[in-house]
Amino acid sequence: MPLPDFEISSQHLQSWIEECFSFARRGEVASYIPALRSVPKGILGVAICDLNGEIVEAGDSDYNFTLQSISKVMTLLLALEDHGPYAVFKRVGMEPTGDPFNSIVKLETLKPSKPLNPMINAGAIAVCDLVNGRTADEKFQRIVDFVKRLANTSEIILDSDVYNSEMDTGHRNRALAYFLKDVDVIRGDVEDTLEIYYRQCALKVTCRDLAFIGAALANDGQVPGNGEQIVKPEYCRIAKAFMVTCGLYDGSGEFAIKVGIPAKSGVSGGILASVPHEFGIGVIGPALDDKGNSIAGVKLLERISNHWNLSIF
Ligand code: GLN
To answer: Is the CB of 267 under 6 A from ligand 1?
Structure first.
């Protein structure tokens, strides 16, 4: 069934998947995480969810992949709900970096010493420390429950291979986290905080889940279809602003010009996009450019945005 306002049908989406498929083989999968090395490149999927919760999808939209950095949006929202913006922005900034997502360089040189924003690794790790809960398990469970509510599904589970792989090899994130502990941005136990961060990155989703989350953001925090208010509208606004300025790291400027939709990418090749007051989009294409963004996924979003003139600018 096409989504009524835009007459989006799965045939539309399928033809764009075919158009963009050649890009799925360009780029490389995120081999710095050993468990992601074996992911096939030839995958491309998309789902779009409108504000009534109606979904159209095409390609590999059922393919399961890990949230990776896309989780940063949800944990930010939860920390904002838990503590409000004043407390959150005492620990992380609001500015884009122009640096890679795992960069360490500005942590020491900027004063006060805090991560520039919550969409880079250092900022997201700091935000994990802020989530309410007595133990790491309890904090993580609150994050999972929150993601499930936003995605309207009970089926979000952990990919333990990806989690273990990052726990074993993520030395740079460990370095970022210990630095943040030293400057009092992380207040809790560093290893607990890293555990929460790596677990949220290893949650498995599909394009449908991302499309639904994108639609909830587009709907100012109300669940598409049933109207339940899960997140305050002003926190959704903050999240979407970060998605525009920092969602594709040091590729955010080009994405804003070519696509113009608030979006957040992850190194599994997923992208969560949210067209304010219209719909949410989820895409997957595991082969990445050198900034860690899905090459085919970005092309597909560009195609969709241009067709319906969705740029917010
Ligand atoms: N888990 C990944 C990391 O910490 C997330 C990075 C990403 O998706 N850009 O390196």
So the answer is: yes
Please give the model's pTM, rounded to 2 decimal places. 0.96
What is the count of structural domains for the chain?
Answer: 2
Are residues 16 and 85 both part of a single domain? no
Q: How far apart are CA 133 and CA 140, in angstroms?
A: 8
Cβ of 75 less than 6 Å from ligand 1:
no
For 16, 49, 54, the CA distances from 10, given in Å and listed in that order, are 10, 12, 12
In a domain, 313, yes or no: no
Predicted confidence at residue 199, as pLDDT, reads 98
What is the set of active-site residues? 69, 72, 197, 249, 267
Find the 100 Cα to ligand 1 centroid distance in Å.
11
| Ligand 1 atom closest to the CA of 198, numbered from 1 | 1
Q: What is the CATH number of the domain that holds 303?
A: 3.40.710.10
Q: Which of 138, 170, 201 is the last residue of a domain?
A: 201
Tens-digit pLDDT profile for residues 90-149: 999 999 988 889 888 888 888 888 999 999 999 999 999 999 999 999 999 999 999 999
pLDDT at 299 over 60: yes
Q: Is 121 in the pocket of ligand 1 (CB under 6 A)?
A: yes
Instruction: Tell me which residue of 40, 39, 46 sits closest to 20, measured CA to CA.
Output: 46
Residue nearest to atom 2 of ligand 1 (CA): 68
pLDDT tens track for 202-237: 999 999 999 999 999 999 999 999 889 999 999 999
Best mutation site among 29, 65, 174, 201 for ligand 1 pocket (most ligand atoms within 8 Å of CB): 201
Domain that holds residue 168: 71-201
Would you say residue 244 lies in a domain?
A: yes
Rg over alpha carbons for the chain, rounded to the nearest Å, is 18
Residue 283 domain-assigned (yes or no): yes
Atom of ligand 1 nearest to the CA of 266: 8
Instruction: Kindly give the number of the ligand 1 atom that is closest to the alpha carbon of 32.
Output: 10
pLDDT score recorded for residue 5: 64
Assess contact for 102 and 121: CB atoms under 8 A.
yes
